[in-house]
Amino acid sequence: MLSHSLPIITPGDSDDGTVPKVVDRLPSDSRSTHRRIGISVGCAEVRLARSVGLIDRVRDPKQTGGRDRAWYRYYAGYSPAFVSDALDVLGLPEGYALLDPWMGAGTTLEVGAGRGLRVTGTDLNPAMIVISKGRMVGRNSSSSLEPLARELLIDLKPASRRTFDPLSQWFTNGTAGRLRSLCNRIDEVLVTPGLSAMQRVDSMSSIAAFYYVAMFMLVKDCTRTFQSKNPTWTKRRELGAGQISLTAKEISRLFLNIVESLVRLIEARSLESAPEHSVDSLRADTRTLPLEDNSHDAVITSPPYCTRLDYIVGHLLELSCLNISAESIRSLRDAMIGTPTMGMKIESQTLGENVDRFLHAVASHPSYASVGYYEPNFRRYFEGMSHSLAEIDRVVKPGASVVLVVQDSRYKDIHLDLAAALTDIGTSLGWRLSGRKDFRAVRSIAHLNPKTSEANRAIKPTESVLLYETADSGHR
Ligand SMILES: C[S@@+](CC[C@H](N)C(=O)[O-])C[C@H]1O[C@@H](n2cnc3c(N)ncnc32)[C@H](O)[C@@H]1O
């Protein structure tokens, strides 16, 4: 049972732009009662007024400053400052359960845990699981991180391999062997032995993940010449062996430099100790969340974009460090929502007025592949989102707040109002849009796609922060 209390906000407090005044507190174990009473005496409207007023103060999710982006550069991520503002809007008391189903680099988890919330993040990309776990290392472990890194580097010999090492797509065989040997050392010392690559990801502690993050950064730094402007596309050598060569000494120096810089970052943060008991990073598909019904109080997240970004190809280097097989990479690509691949079967369900209108316009477009590739591809995206929002609805408590960050986009001359499209899906689940703030996006995700036309490149997209209240128990 939670030992905290839930603030009750006076009506109209947020209208004048001031921080809402807490006038009373109810014990948290009467939270559901509060909800019930709230509806009968009008508190639901009070809660709504608070949200609508404060949503205006939320900072641009994509504007990052200073250390904000330093943990891991993720083109699809939002800023800790944004999560902090969103949490102010929600007013979740300590100990409450926050979910980020598309957690990416774990920004929501770090900020939520720093505020004493229980946080769960899910993502299908194993690289993001490791990045978000590594992010949870607390300040009290920081002094041991460099000494342990030095130990991991002692007597590093190239790992002998008969089979193809995915790292040799960029590195010479000798260098790939040395890098693999460092990964193996992390596994030997810090990860349960004898596990498959995916099981290692699932069981990895935040300390082991921390060193893997250092490995990711090392290989990314060394392969800059292979990286194109589009972060989801890392070029590989056409033929077999890569060309980058590093001695064991160079690898050690780079690894230690990166560990040092990450340690500085951890020391500058407020997270005291790794809150392993109250933070969960799970490798899971949002269409089938491994979470219990009614188990979370609120959601802050940004869903995959509807711009055919390949989140898996964008992380081939990280996935190669983790030794994820080519076969797993293929099935992961198919399973990602918004993927450009054609893996998942489509169901042809009705997805709301805005989606149906958009899909109809795409299918009617005269350009090559509109009907054969693009329409089914967009349909697959919306079917994935429809199943995922239904799952989110299942795992949150009645009347929970859900914050989504989305960006609009274009296909040819057809505008996709993603905020309206997802609101249709939410409405079909009984959700109510109770607040919205739009920003002119500084970075357009669609522009990362080299196939985006010049005309569409000139249009600055809108990034929307959407705040929903899910249905109260009576309406479910
Ligand atoms: C826009 S990003 C989220 C970024 C995150 N808010 C951050 O700050 O780092 C969307 C995430 O959805 C994940 N994703 C795509 N399809 C998924 C699925 N079916 N299940 C779970 N996660 C998925 C991608 O791996 C990606 O990390």
Structure description:
Helices cover 41% and strands 14% of the residues. The chain folds into two domains: 58-136 and 275-475, Vaccinia Virus protein VP39 (Rossmann fold), CATH 3.40.50.150; 139-267, no CATH class. The strands form three sheets. A seven-stranded mixed beta sheet has the order 5-4-3-6-7-11-10, with helices on both faces. A two-stranded antiparallel sheet has the order 1-2. A two-stranded antiparallel ribbon has the order 8-9. The chain has helices spanning 31-41, 43-55, 80-90, 107-114, 126-134, 142-153, 173-190, 197-203, 206-222, 248-267, 316-321, 326-335, 353-364, 370-395, 418-428, 454-457; strands at residues 5-9, 22-27, 97-100, 118-123, 279-283, 296-301, 396-407, 409-411, 414-416, 432-440, 462-469. The two termini are 24 Å apart. The model is unreliable at 1-50 (pLDDT under 50). With 476 residues, the chain is of the alpha/beta class. The structure holds S-adenosylmethionine. Belongs to the N(4)/N(6)-methyltransferase family. N(4) subfamily. It comes from Kribbella caucasensis. Its EC number is 2.1.1.113. Keywords: Methyltransferase, Restriction system, S-adenosyl-L-methionine, Transferase.
